[in-house]
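Appendix C. Worked example: Lipopolysaccharide assembly protein A
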Amino acid sequence: MFLKHCGPFFMTKFFSFTLTILFLLIGLTLGILNPNLVPFDLFWTQIEMPLSLLLAIALVIGMLLASLYFFSQTLKLKWQLKRHEKANKKQLDEIIQLKKQMLELQTQKNDSDKKLLSLETTEQ
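Step 2, the predicted output written as structure tokens:
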């Protein structure tokens, strides 16, 4: 009943908070269940670190790479959107210009029709 009266901003914050707590609990569980030291081979050296820390580092690197990918996709889509908006504005300006020309031509046609009618009535 309480959540029915809350706005979308609150729901977003609530979802983020819940997700953060969930990840902290998963991390805490990984830390408790995997305290063993494991060797981690780098190209030039080998270090030993807790498996839970190694998993956390891999998770953070994965999240950073995913966010970088989504950021690049977002930039690409924004660029395409601006390009299409510019093309739409150009087409809208062209439509307005064509409508103005059409009105001018209709006005000229009406004027010429009136002149023709007046000439026909004066000839009779």
